[in-house]
Amino acid sequence: MTSPETPLRDPGAAGPGWRIGVLYSRSGVSGTTESQHFFGTVLAVEEINALGGVLGRPLEPIAYDPRSDCEEYRRLAARLLLDDEVNVIFGGCTSHCRKAMLPVVERSNSLLWYASVYEGFEYSPNVIYTGAAPNQGSMQLAAYLIQHCGSRIFLVGADYIYPRETNRIMRETVEEHGGDILDETYLPLDCDESDILEVVQDIARIRPDVVFSTLIGSDAQRFYQRYHEAGLAAANIPIASLTMTEAEVAEVGPALCVGHITAATYFNTVATPGNAHFLARWRERFGDRPANVYAETSYSQVHLFARALQRVGALDTRKLVQAVHKVGFDAPDGRLSILAENNHCVLTPRIGVCRPDGSFDIVWESGVPVKPDPYLTAFGLDEFWLK
């Protein structure tokens, strides 16, 4: 693989291009997840350039691998903005890496496109948030678990802001509706095998109705493997997650994940014309590698950016943000649009159950797209109770 210090430029670009930064990890603890972000971005850039680019000029990506390290994210974001003279970055997955980039992005008045589910409670005029806010997945998942799995819940997560804040929301929501959080434990990123085994043993001893996991990347994959090896199964104690997608399931092995639950705004089983086109192009480009919500969201946000850029005709942050509020894109998961009041995306929450082939049966989806409420001003489970 190319060194993280080496820019990756579109070899088909000719003439003056629109330079954009791409910061997704291809290695490290979140490498599997962030590679999906990267591939979705690549697919969109190639599609746009094959159609003549934007206003006759190709998108010219400059990409680095931050290796799942928040300090590398900060350093490489600064390198893109200062040395490479880029002012639009597509990048970031985990919240601690987003927050490492944010001061650099804001100081330079640049624009970050962030395509990951996150814990909410943030707004920046220099960020477009295309991933799900808590009211577009977390709340619906809490309702589903109480209604269909039981109210005795075990929380396990990685030790950084996204899992802790997401688990806080889950705890408050479950307890508000008479449920019990039986335990809440956190493991360091890239944790020891003994840490995972200890959590699995605790779950086997406590016997909750369901486990809610906010472990990520390779740690989550090892957790599902050790869970299966311990004789625990979805039929008795399912694992629910916001981050265990088709790509992670493929790494774990679908047979080990059957029956486990994920809430996301996209599964590759979504039945829309836009998804049929997306998957056809995806398979043509990447073969049997499964597409997931990270790939789809990253792909869609690049197309949305291209529409805003076409309106503005310049990489002007203020004008691009204004323009993105006025454009839309028929994404694989539905119509994509950004709210002017908070720069977050209108999305359709869905809940899926993993099946033997590694895809997900969609067991519930919102009847209408849900406006983002990143600060949970309408906090409370009643409006999310699943019909």
From TrEMBL:
Protein known as: Transporter substrate-binding domain-containing protein
UniProt xrefs under InterPro entries: AmiC_PBP1, Peripla_BP_I
Highest taxon of the lineage: Bacteria
SUPFAM superfamilies reported in the protein's UniProt record: Periplasmic binding protein-like I
PANTHER family, alphabetized: ALIPHATIC AMIDASE EXPRESSION-REGULATING PROTEIN (PTHR47628:SF1), PTHR47628
Organism: Achromobacter veterisilvae
Matches recorded under Pfam families: Peripla_BP_5
